[in-house]
Amino acid sequence: MKQKLLLALTLVFFTSFSVFADQPVTYMNDYEVESTEDDAPQFTKVDEDEDVETVTFEGLKDLFSYWSFTLEAGLNRFDGDITQDYNDLLPSSTTQLTLGGSAEYTLSSAWSLGLDYYYLPLRGETKYANFTGTMHSVSLFSSFNLVKAFLPYSKTKWGIWTSVGLGAALYDSEYKTSRNGQRIKGGNGAYYVDNNSNIDDGRVAFIPVGFLAEYNFTENLAVGLKAQIRSFNKDYIERKLQLGVSNDVVEFATLQARWKITNGREKFVHKRNETVQVDYRSEIDALQEKVDNIVIPPASTYDDERINNLERRVKKMEDILCPDGPDDDNDGVPNCRDQEPQTPAGTQVDFWGRTIGQQQVEQVLNDDSFITFDFDKTGLNNESHRAIAICARKMKADPELIVEVRGFTDNVGTDEYNTDLSLKRANVVKEELVKTYGIEEDRVIANGKGKYNPKDKSVPFRPYRTCVLFYNK
Question: Rounded to two decimals, what is the model's pTM?
Answer without folding.
Answer: 0.49
